[in-house]
Amino acid sequence: MIEKTDAIVLKSMRYRDTSKIVTFYTRRYGKIKAIAKGARDSKSKFGAALEPMTLSSLVIYKKEQRELQLVSQCDIVKPYKRIHSEMERMAVALSIVELINQLTHDEEENLALFLLLVKTLDCLEKSERMFESHFFAFEIRLALLFGFALHLENCISCGRKLELNGAKTAYILDLSKGGIYCPTCSATAGKLGAQGHSQYRLRAEAAQSLKLLHHLDMDNIQNLEYTTEAGNELNETLRLYLQYHIEGLKPLKAAKVFQSLHV
């Protein structure tokens, strides 16, 4: 059966002499793998439409229970030229598509996740600064879609509204509960030795930035400012949070490139 859907290319690999096996995240079917015959031929009709981090219009010959579908046509909808040409943007986008590829199963439709992926790449393409913030914002919204959202409005112990200010204040984020203790409860938790495998100490700037990343509209993410130290802390915190809630999550291969943004 011939099917058409929009798709983000997650991964592309060589197959035999002239073909490619491509992993897509699609609007209609979630993640699918397909073979594009002749895609590496110099006269290929596919052009750059099969390159990772590209939004394409995909036509496939789809057969149920077949592991590899067959690409009939693939045309670029959005090439994301700045993402492909600038290392900092590319590092962030590679981390995003690699994370999607790890976390999703074949042919499980998730329209909200597809739209989040496209929106994040759109914003990263247009952004003029703070590129890594788009990855952090993506991780936070991914957690929401997967059912373990962060809750950053009130203390998870006493219920007091969190202000998350004070340069010298330290907070404790409970990875298992997805929330933060207020300064008073953080101090108590620390004295009791509660900061174990599910709890992580967070300085005020990182905690405040985490809250802003949670609430800011995606189009305004680039306006958020924080220090390199806070960026490192956000990166580590969100990595640990996802690892805690997603069994078997592996380190991202793109992480070495991405981490160079925080040196």
Annotate the secondary structure layout.
Blueprint: E1 2-15, E2 19-26, E3 30-36, E4 55-61, E5 69-78, H1 81-85, H2 87-103, H3 111-126, H4 132-145, E6 170-174, E7 179-181, H5 183-191, E8 199-203, H6 204-215, H7 228-245, H8 255-259
Parallel strand pairs: 3-5
Antiparallel strand pairs: 1-2, 1-4, 2-3, 4-5, 6-7, 6-8
How is this structure best summarized?
By secondary structure, the chain is α+β, with helices and mostly antiparallel strands. Helix content is 37%, strand content 22%.
Task: Describe the 3D structure.
The protein has 263 residues and is of the alpha+beta class. The protein contains 8 helices and 8 strands; from the N terminus they run βββββααααββαβααα. It has helices at residues 81-85, 87-103, 111-126, 132-145, 183-191, 204-215, 228-245, 255-259; strands at residues 2-15, 19-26, 30-36, 55-61, 69-78, 170-174, 179-181, 199-203. Strands 1-2-3-5-4 form a 5-stranded mixed β-barrel. Strands 7-6-8 form a 3-stranded antiparallel beta sheet. A hairpin with a 4-residue loop joins β6 (170-174) and β7. The mean pLDDT is 90.
